[in-house]
Structures
1.
Amino acid sequence: MEKVPMTAGGFVALEVELKQRQQVDRQRIIQAIAEARALGDLSENAEYHAAKEAQSLNEGRIMELESLIGRADIIDISKLGGDTIKFGATVKLIDDDTEEEKLYQIVGEPESDVKSGKVSIGSPIARALIGKKVGDSVHVNTPGGGKSYEVVSVAFR
């Protein structure tokens, strides 16, 4: 089985989601199914079919979370350092075209969230950044076209 790299914070978030889905969501869905069954004919019961679909989606996500947690390779970012960009690094970039500042942390796939500045290790920007240092220029091919950045700082926090 392939290990999945992630930060300690990402691992905790997965555990919290799993607990929520197993202990809260599962019980709520079971209750919704029971209530829908009480309404009678199941063949034309939209509430029943919706609850069964929600159950299927929830159980599928539970299995996915259990797999990710079981394959987690937790990397302690506080023990990392240096001036070269690698997994866990928080990188400040300046867009060469707009002079806009961007701040990204390179994290594992399950914990990535671009809106909060966490990019997956497998994303185009992370792949372009790995191995670079402060002062380096980086060209990233994105679905929206090429972008160029200058690395301003690298930190591990």
2.
Amino acid sequence: MKMPEAGFGVVPIEQARKMDGLTLFGEIRAGRLPAPPIARVLGFWIEEVEAGRVAFAYEPVREHYNPIGSVHGGIAATLLDSVMGCSVHTRLAAGAGYTTVEIKINYVRAMTDKTGRVRAEGKVINLGSRIATAEGRLTDASGKLLAHGTTTCLVFPI
């Protein structure tokens, strides 16, 4: 995992409130702001950020296995929920935040510690004043689809 220069933590809400979403995620990616603690726990990192699109990388590990010997589907769901929500956040103005209202995940292929590095990419479908939607894809290094999903997010002032 790529260790962020600013480490892991939570950006104080007073600071986050003053930044538009694209700036916030650009600063996290650049290491000038801390990455969220969940990134350390699950071992993922931001690879790319642009308005309306975010990509994370993740290396599947045995510590994330379920009882049948593959990476638990909750890892794929968390990666997709995160990149889809973050893609929405990159389009929000300073003072706005979001929360996931619903996610839908389709699992296509299992991940194991032999899968190698995977990529989760989220893209905004539509951004309204109160509701946003996004889609996400989780692929392996050869581009094979592992899972995909959609989200609906509620946009609100923070």
3.
Amino acid sequence: MSHTMQRSGPEGHNLPFGRLVPAGEPILCVAATSAGPITLIRASGEVDMSSAHLLVDMVALVAARPAPQQVALDMSEVTFFGAHGISALLRARHLVTCAGGVLTLPAVSPTVRYILGVTGVGDLLGIQAPPIRREGLVPPVAADDTAPRTPCRPVPGRSGDGPPLARHA
């Protein structure tokens, strides 16, 4: 069994990073091949609000087969992965699980790995996120020992549900 689904970009459709998709060029291509109870689904391109449904549609097609399936979703060629992609993966996992199968993600691009790691969905799907290196995010700031220090004190009248707010004097 072999199936392919794709969503082509409209003429002049703007994509992230200023790239234009010519008419007919696929935004996302999803292809499936099966060998017995194992189905490999490969996604390449951008998984966004206009294309995420293709992943779900392909998984639904595979999950509708009578025997329990092992569905391996290869996302190593995904270049953009948005919130709709997360929803699509969760929906795909639900479809396969309800059909008595197992969904795995044997290969994911760095983009997908990062998004799944930051959102915590990677743990649910069995994807290990690389640690976030904080040293590259913000340049270090040198301490200024000559600046006067202003002590913080509690805001008058604040009590009850937590520690008092502080403000500079």
